[in-house]
Amino acid sequence: MILIVFMGPVYLLQAIVQMATGISFFRESGTGGQWYEQLLSNLDSSSSFDSSSLGTDIGLIVVGMVSFLLFPVAEAAILFAMQHIQKEEEYTVTSVIKKAFHRFWPMLGSSILFGIILLGIILIPILIVAFSGATLAATVHPIIGILVGLLLFIGFAVGVGLLITRWSFYFGSVVLDKVSPGFTRSWRLSRKRTWILFGLYIVFYLIVSIISFAVQLTFGALLGDSVLLGLISNLVSLFSTMIFSVGYGVMYLDLKTRNDAEDLKELIEDYQSI
After folding, report:
1. Planar angle of CA 25, 29, 33, nearest 5 degrees
2. Is 131 exposed, middle or buried (0-12, 13-18, 19+ CB in 10 A)?
3. Which helix (H) or strand (E) holds 92?
4. Which pLDDT tens digit goes with each residue over 23-65?
5. Is 191 helix (H, G, I), strand (E, B) or coil?
6. CA–CA separation, 64 vs 69, rounded Å?
7. Hey, is 148 helix, strand or coil?
8. pTM here?
9. Least C-beta-crowded within 10 Å: which of 139, 231, 240, 256?
10. Are 69 and 81 contacting, i.e. CB atoms less than 8 angstroms apart?
11. How far, in Å, CA of 50 to CA of 28, rounded?
């Protein structure tokens, strides 16, 4: 419900923009006489760029810009709702959304800072791998350059993934614990559980990717580059986003409970009240 409240109007706006630029709602028919030729043509047209895809590009840009501002608020509202559920407290969608908006600016600032850090720790290893592989390929042997580049890429990929995992729980710290930018607390919370959390992130990524790929492959062949395909893809995106958001919330609340011993504090408070 929270994701629909935030992203539903955005996806509707995207569909309106696409239809206004001349994209068919139900189907962009492919070329070819037989049905399988039309399906292949639809897949090819949905993956290629031409002037008819301008509406889709505009819609994606609009969704991307608005999502950048609204999705953190939606994720924060989900975290507040999960915290209420954990504590067995009553809550409403409106109440958690209001709480989320109160943390808007700290979330936005921390997210921008995290994006800058993310860009740095991804871009620098890519440059190192490319330079090392090209140098060895030119001076020693092309196969050695490729092998060394591949090994460096795998090593850097794992290292970057672990670093991102250690810092990724900054968002929960900013929202629930009101600690900005939250990187130090995230590093402390994820200590001794980095590999497990990294593995969970990979599992969530695989689930989301498989669902998205299956929908794009199936409906993309049937509907082509149409507005209806965009709406279906966006609904699937809401579902996969919900999976990731809830998974992230469970991981953060588990780390928070393990490190802050909140269960013990609640038991002590209950005992003292008796």
Report:
1. 160
2. exposed
3. none
4. 777 765 544 444 445 455 555 554 444 444 565 566 667 777 8
5. coil
6. 9
7. helix
8. 0.79
9. 139
10. no
11. 13
Of the candidates 100, 46, 49, the one whose C-alpha atom is nearest the C-alpha of residue 73 is 100
Contact 259, 173 (CB under 8 A): no
> Residue 269: how many CA atoms within 13 Å on its side-chain side?
6
Residues ≥6 apart with Cβ < 8 Å to 180: 106, 109, 110, 174
Q: What is the dihedral of CA 124, 128, 129, 133, to 10 degrees?
A: 160
| Residues 241-258 pLDDT 10s | 899 999 999 999 999 888
**Amino acid residing at 39:** L
Residue 8 has pLDDT above 90, yes or no: no
Q: Alpha helices, DSSP H only, in 190-226?
A: 194-223
